[in-house]
Each structure stands twice: as structure tokens, then as C-alpha cells.
Write a structure and sequence with these properties.
The protein is an alpha+beta fold. The protein has 30 helices and 28 strands. The chain has an eight-stranded mixed beta sheet. The chain has a five-stranded mixed beta sheet with strand order 15-16-17-19-18. β18 and β19 form a beta hairpin.
């Protein structure tokens, strides 16, 4: 409740205007750009029963404006100013009616403000005719799609753009007659219009939705419909490759499986009218969980011929993730976006469970660990580490809540929580949570309050450290007569992360002893008795079961012993955990890059587990990128796998790393020959995307042939969407610096970043490791543009922008550019500075 709600505030034009009209002036705190927490609370307290009736007229030409009409009905408690969110210029608002009559209004600071004097006590109807912004329309030549998460709805239409004002939506679209349209609701009626070549498509009213979940897609699309047990699913796409289109039945089957799994687990039937999905080229996320119109990217859904196990797992996990959101995020939604992780944690955690029956041959404990822990460490180890639950005062910064901490650290935390409570009590608590907050909004604290009834543990204290505090513990261990384990807080706050840890003592005769250590109740130093004294030649492997979380620092002798032990380790989870621990110690200087790379190249060919093989390849590639060394041995080991491995997917994975690290004249020549002839190594099936990626690398390494390579590859591509993508990205690999400079300058213009994956790919090519000396000059201006990138881009783009900019740089000069940027901006926004520090971390190691 705002105590000074009706104080007169001098100096804001809209407030002065309202005062002149005789209306009480809203507090300035309510009229900030974006949606402040104060405004959200004010509206939640005074407005209810919101319904939207929306209409959009969509021209076929993407350069023509999209116009619309929004009719918003709401009940107002007492007479209050009606503050509607709309991010547009005043001239984009053609008219405003309140209860059928024209009223005074202002458009300022992303709001349309109608004075309290004009509003009725009770039901009101606001009608706004407007021109929509293109920012969230994602317009291409033959289609468009809306993407409004987390706070972009107000760029498209006037609304109350906050997650805790769930509303009912009715939509009508006027589109070209040759286009189809998909939205949250089912199609109710299709009518011709008075304009030739146009038609109007009307959709049924939705269930209660937050504004960020409202969506529609319109364009030239192909539709495939599938049925199971009376339930229908339609898949819309633009794919032209018959082999990829043939995957649609498999995709639909996995959606059906995911829906059935969640219905059985939650005992709540699918809570929305329909589940259709649209697979889009160049979509900037893996997927987005709009009810009735879930969006997916074609690169994750349509797999290449002979996909790797990782690619198949990734698609199944993505489908399970977005389907889980129907319950966790859509049915029950966070109250405010600082709790956005409460939808992502369930989507990822349950996705890992849901794919288990689809892949019975996979070690799913290993897959869970490799999926989440390395990705979480990649941000949690940095100076930009953030808590799982962050502070958010205004929705305009809500996109910066996203990152590996909420997607990857949180499932690890949730697994610990399930273990504390027990599988069945946790499941009962989740069912109560969903029923309690059905079609409403919840907080993490609300969930903890429910789960507290199912356990004797103090969940609030446990949750505070894991959820509300940033970073992770550093854990040291040493074995003698006892096992000594110490936990410390790298930020000096004295925090203790309660968790159960597993250690393996390996003796000189290869006999092992597993020891469990429990950290709880403030004890940071533990001594545990051993059955057998650890003497000379013994060493400790920390986190033996892979379920612990933190930086497990190895003593130098243990690090060397663990590197040697890796090929002989029989337990897959232990090997996976050891791979993670060794890499983290490489980054923290316990292990030299030379000894690490030598040991990993010796180990890699003998690894029999596909998941571990993939993880090891990734670590080898990272080591070569961060600590460049003579690539000859690495090339030789990888090429031998490419040409001799029994499994085709291993040949392919080794080839992809070989392609990215090849530096010798022999290796580059080999790659050019196979690209030119389109003749892949025997048993190594390359996709069109592989050849496209190869063409970029070859153009960079063979500047005298770059134009020929790009022209040839462009001519080989037949799909029109992929041809446009290649035409956009390929200038970034030009051998001419003036061309690359012009590409970079173009990326500083927001309109040229509309297709964000393309923009990221181009920026990454400009800053590739082979050209980092010339590209250092891009760092500072790209960082200076980051705030605008955030303002005009979607949720992952600030991170992707900085990653594309910095990941190819390893020089002191690059580090200096980052240091100079922060020195020049001592008060730079914390949430954005964290994104920079996370992606610049390797420059400081």
C-alpha cells in the first residue's frame, strides 16, 4: 500500500496534466518507466477481474505498421487512477475511451494514465486504438511471432504487464488470406473481410494467463495434426527438408508422453484447452511455454541425420521442460519475476525425470550431473555470481534474472530438497501447492511453507543459504588417520551450505573406501574416522557420488593422482564427477594446462560412455581455447577417432571439435578438401549445418579463398530461411577488415539485431580467436552498447552478446578493455555487470 498515493507531485508532465484536469495526481513512484514494484502492488490491490479483447491487423509487408485495438475490462475498488502500461510514443495511441466516452489521458514513461476522476467505482471498460511496436513481433518476410516474456507485452498492446494480474484473453487477427494463425485459444471463427486477399481469424477466450504468456503466430506455415486417446496436437513449421519433416510424429509422441507423465505425477489434468506447437527458424530460445501456442526453435527440434545421443536427449528434455511449464509457470505462476526460477527449477528437474523411460540405456544420474553442475559452475565460480533468487525493483530488469544459476543450479538444489523431505512427501506437497495456487500466483516462500508440513527439518534456514545467497562453498579434503574436510565461504560471509558429501579414498593397492560427510548445524570442519589409514600413495577423490555442490579443491598430489586414475575408474558417475572436479581445478591453477591436456588426450579414446565422451571433448576444447598450445597432438588424437571409432556419433563429435581447433596447415587443408568435395570421412555423416559451420571456419583460416567459399556455400543452401541466415552471418568472416568493421557497426543498430541468434553468431565470428588481436577494438563499444542491447533485446541476449564478444579473447589487452570499461562506469547496473563478469571470467584466470 502506498501511503502517499494522492500527493501532488510537481515536475512530471503527466501529473501536472492530471492536476489541471482536477484529478488527484498519482505518486511519482508509480509512474517510473517500466513496471515498478510499487505500481504492481497498487494495481493488484485496487484492480481485479481483468479481461482483454484484442484485435490486430497484420499487413503482409513486414515494413508496414501493425495496428490494433485493445478493450480492457476491469473492476476498480474505489475511484483510482487507471495506469496502463504501453511502451510507445504518444502518437502511437490513436484514441482512448473509458466506458464509451473520450477522456483526458497522457502517454508518458511507458504508461497511459487516466485520472481517478474519470474512472467509475466498479466495472470499467477502457478501449485503446494503437500502433504496435515491432520489437516483440519478430517479423520476417513470410511470418511473425510474438514473444512477450518477461515484460514485453506492453510493447505490443496496452496492458497491465505484471505476472500477478492474470487475465482472460480473447483475440482476433486480420491477416493475408494465404496465412495461417495460431494463438493461445482455439480458432473459433474465420471470416472474409471487405478487403480482397484478407481474412479475419477469431480465437476463443483463454484460461487465466499472465501477460507474458499471451502469444500468437501468423504466416505461411505447414500444419501437421496428431491424435492420441482423444487428445489432438498440431505442429506448425516452415521446414522443407523431407527428412526433418518426417520427425514430426516423434515430436508429437514425446509431447503426448510428457503431458501424460505430468498428469499422473500431479493428479491434475492438463489445465488448458489445447497444446499446439510452432517450430520456428531462428527462434531465439530453445522453447517458450505459451499455452496453446508453444514455440520451439527448429535447430533443437529437427535433428540432423544420425543425431548424437546428446542431441536426442536435448530435444526430449526441451519438450519435457516446456510441457512441465504448463503446470509450473502457466497454471501456477510466480508472483513477481525475482521468483522466475520457481518455474524453471521444476521444468528442468521434472524434465530430467520424464526422459528416463525414453532412454533406458542412459545412466540418468550421470546425465543429471553433467547437464546441470558444469553449467551452474560456469557462472557460480565467477565474480558475477548471483543468488538463485535475486532482487528486482522494476520489471524492465526482469530479463536479467535469467541465467545458468536459475536453470542449472536450482535443479541441483531441488534434488537436495527432495532427499531431505523424501520422494513421496515431496510429491504430496507439490500436489497441495498446485491445488492451493491453481490459476494463480505463488512465491518460493509459499511453497516452502507447504513443504514444511511434510518434514521436521528447518527448510527456511536451509533455503536461505542455497537460494538467497550467491556463490558456492570451497571444500578442501585430506586423508590420514582420519578424513579431514573443511568448507569455507569464498566471499567471507561465514556461510555454511548444508549438504551431504561423499569421498572416495584410493589406497596404493587400488583398494577404496567411501566416506560420507554431513555438513549441518554450523560445523565447517569435519574429521571422520577411516577404516584404514591413508598413507603414502593414497589419495582422495571428492564428491564421489556427484551429488555435492561446490569447488572441491585438490592438493597437488591428489590432482596428479586423480588425473592418472581417471582411465582406470570403473564407476561412470565417479568418472563424471572426477572430470568436473579436474576441470575446475585446472581453472583454479591446481593443475597445469600441459599436464591436464596430456592426461585428457590419453584418456579420451578409451572412454566408452557416450555422455562422458562428450563431456571430455568439451573440456579438451575449452582447455585448448583458454590455454592455447601446439594443436598437433590434439588434432592427431581427434582425427584418429574421426576415422576409426566404431560409433558414428563419436566420429561426428570428434570431427566437430577437430573442425573448431584445427590450426596446422595439414588439418586446414584436409578440412577444405572434404568441404569442397562434400565428402565426409567414412562413417561420419555431416549435416548441412556442419558444412555451413565448416565454411565459416575455412573462410577465416583461408582468406585468399574466403569469397569463393562463402559464395559456394550460399549456392548450396536451398531452404529460403537458411539462405537468409547465411547471407546475414557470412560477411562476418570476410578477409577484409573494412567489411568486418561495417558488420560490427551494423550490429550496434537495434534493427539489425532483430534475429538474435544470427546477430550473436556474427559477433562471435568477428571476435573469433584467430582474429582477436584485430577484434580487441570491438570490445569497448560493444560493452557500451549493452544497456541498449538489454532494452531492445530478449531475455538471453545480453548474456549471449557478451559471450559472443569475449569468448574468443584470451589476451591481456582484452582484459584491460574490460577493466577500463568498469573503471569508466563505477556505478554500472549490478545485474548487467554480473553478465559481463560471468562471461569475462576466463580473462582473469
Amino acid at each position: 500500500m502506498i501511503d502517499v498515493m494522492f500527493k501532488h507531485f510537481i515536475g512530471i508532465a503527466s501529473v501536472a496534466f492530471l492536476s489541471a484536469c482536477g484529478s488527484p495526481a498519482p505518486d511519482a513512484a508509480l509512474l517510473q518507466p517500466g513496471v515498478s514494484r510499487e505500481l504492481a502492488r497498487f494495481r493488484k490491490e485496487h484492480f481485479e477481474g481483468v479481461r482483454y479483447h484484442l484485435f490486430f491487423s497484420i499487413p503482409e509487408n513486414r515494413w508496414e505498421a501493425v495496428t490494433g485495438k485493445a478493450e480492457i475490462t476491469l473492476a476498480v475498488r474505489e475511484k483510482q487512477p487507471v495506469i496502463i502500461d504501453f511502451r510507445g510514443e504518444p502518437e502511437q495511441v490513436a484514441s482512448v475511451l473509458l466506458n464509451g466516452r473520450k477522456v483526458p489521458y497522457t502517454v508518458k514513461d511507458e504508461h497511459i494514465v487516466i485520472g481517478a476522476r474519470e474512472a467509475a467505482d466498479g466495472e470499467n471498460r477502457v478501449t485503446v486504438e494503437f500502433t504496435a511496436n515491432d520489437q516483440s513481433l519478430n517479423r520476417r518476410d513470410e511470418f511473425l511471432y510474438t514473444l512477450l516474456v518477461p515484460d514485453r507485452a506492453r510493447t505490443l498492446f496496452p496492458c497491465f504487464d505484471q505476472p500477478d494480474m492474470k487475465s482472460l484473453f480473447t483475440l482476433s487477427l486480420e491477416v493475408p488470406s494465404s496465412w495461417q494463425a495460431v494463438a493461445n485459444g482455439a480458432v473459433e471463427q474465420v471470416d472474409s473481410t471487405s478487403v480482397a486477399g484478407r481474412r479475419r481469424i477469431s480465437f476463443r477466450e483463454t484460461e487465466p494467463l499472465s501477460t507474458y504468456l499471451f502469444s500468437f503466430v501468423a504466416g505461411k506455415l505447414t500444419r501437421e495434426t496428431y491424435s492420441r486417446d482423444g487428445r489432438n496436437i498440431s505442429i506448425y513449421h516452415r521446414e522443407t527438408d523431407p527428412k526433418k519433416v518426417a520427425q514430426c510424429p516423434d515430436i508429437a509422441s514425446e509431447v503426448f508422453d510428457a503431458l501424460e507423465w505430468q498428469e499422473e505425477y500431479t493428479r491434475i489434468a492438463y489445465p488448458f484447452a489445447k497444446y499446439d506447437l510452432i517450430i520456428l527458424p531462428g527462434f531465439q530460445f530453445g522453447g517458450m511455454e505459451h499455452t496453446g501456442a508453444t514455440l520451439y526453435t527448429d535447430g533443437r527440434m529437427f535433428l540432423n541425420e544420425n543425431p548424437t545421443l546428446n542431441e536426442r536427449l536435448a530435444r526430449s528434455s526441451l519438450i519435457a521442460h516446456e510441457t512441465s511449464h504448463m503446470w509450473f509457470g502457466d497454471f501456477v505462476t510466480m508472483e513477481w519475476f525475482n521468483d522466475v526460477w520457481t518455474k524453471e527449477v521444476f521444468a528442468n528437474y521434472y524434465a530430467s525425470r520424464m526422459i528416463e523411460p525414453l532412454f533406458p540405456e542412459v545412466n540418468h544420474s550421470l546425465n543429471f550431473m553433467l547437464d546441470y553442475i558444469p553449467a551452474a559452475y560456469s557462472e557460480d565460480r565467477t565474480a558475477g555470481a548471483n543468488p538463485v533468487k535475486q532482487q528486482l525493483s522494476n520489471m524492465r530488469d526482469a530479463g536479467l534474472m535469467y541465467g545458468n544459476i536459475i536453470y542449472d543450479k536450482s535443479p541441483v538444489i531441488l534434488e537436495m530438497l527432495v532427499k531431505k523431505i523424501g520422494e513421496e512427501p515431496f510429491r504430496e506437497g507439490i500436489r497441495e501447492y498446485l491445488k492451493t495456487y491453481a490459476y494463480g500466483n505463488a512465491t518460493w516462500e509459499g511453497l516452502i511453507g507447504i513443504l514444511d508440513k511434510y518434514t521436521d527439518d528447518d527448510l527456511s534456514a536451509w533455503s536461505h543459504v542455497w537460494v538467497n545467497e550467491k556463490g558456492m562453498p570451497e571444500i578442501s579434503c585430506e586423508a590420514g588417520k582420519k578424513l579431514y574436510v573443511e568448507q569455507s565461504d569464498p566471499f567471507g560471509r561465514g556461510l555454511l551450505w548444508e549438504q551431504d558429501l561423499s569421498f572416495l579414498i584410493v589406497h596404493p593397492d587400488k583398494e577404496t573406501e567411501e566416506v560420507q560427510v554431513k555438513f549441518a548445524k554450523g560445523k565447517r570442519l569435519r574429521f571422520v574416522d577411516l577404516k584404514r589409514k591413508a598413507g603414502t600413495g593414497s589419495f582422495v577423490i571428492p564428491n564421489a557420488d556427484g551429488k555435492g555442490y561446490g569447488f572441491f579443491r585438490l592438493f597437488e598430489k591428489d590432482a596428479k593422482a586423480c588425473l592418472s586414475y581417471l582411465p582406470d575408474c570403473k564407476d561412470e558417475v565417479l568418472r563424471g564427477s572426477l572430470l568436473i572436479t579436474l576441470y575446475e581445478n585446472l581453472l583454479n591453477w591446481t593443475i597445469s594446462s600441459e599436464s591436464y591436456m596430456e592426461a585428457m588426450l590419453d584418456y579420451l579414446p578409451g572412454e566408452t560412455n557416450s555422455l562422458l565422451f562428450s563431456a571430455a571433448l568439451g573440456y579438451i576444447g575449452n582447455c585448448q581455447r583458454l590455454y592455447p598450445a601446439d594443436p598437433e597432438k590434439t588434432e592427431q588424437v581427434l582425427w584418429k577417432i574421426v576415422t576409426t571409432a566404431e560409433q558414428p556419433q563419436r566420429r561426428l563429435q570428434a570431427f566437430r571439435l577437430y573442425r573448431s581447433i584445427a590450426r596446422t596447415r595439414e588439418a586446414v587443408g584436409k578440412l577444405y578438401a572434404l568441404w569442397k568435395d562434400r565428402k565426409a570421412p567414412a562413417g561420419c555423416s555431416l549435416s548441412e549445418n556442419d558444412y555451413i559451420s565448416l565454411s565459416y571456419g575455412l573462410a577465416i583460416q583461408m582468406p585468399d579463398k574466403a569469397d569463393e567459399i562463402v559464395a559456394t556455400q550460399q549456392a548450396r543452401i536451398t531452404n529460403p530461411d537458411r539462405k537468409r541466415q547465411y547471407a546475414f552471418i557470412s560477411p562476418s568472416v570476410s578477409p577484409r577488415k573494412e567489411v568486418r568493421d561495417s558488420v560490427f557497426a551494423s550490429l550496434l543498430v537495434a534493427g539489425n539485431r532483430r534475429v538474435e541468434p544470427w546477430a550473436s553468431a556474427a559477433l562471435s565470428n568477428l571476435n573469433c580467436q584467430l582474429r582477436q588481436k584485430e577484434a580487441v577494438g570491438y570490445i569497448r563499444p560493444a560493452l557500451e552498447a549493452l544497456q541498449e542491447v538489454q532494452r531492445t533485446g530478449d531475455i538471453f541476449f545480453p548474456r549471449d552478446w557478451v559471450r559472443a564478444l569475449l569468448s574468443g579473447h584470451t589476451s591481456p589487452e582484452a582484459k584491460k578493455e574490460v577493466d577500463d570499461f568498469f573503471a569508466a562506469h563505477p556505478d554500472y547496473p549490478v545485474l548487467l555487470s554480473n553478465k559481463i563478469r560471468q562471461q569475462a571470467d576466463h580473462l582473469y584466470r
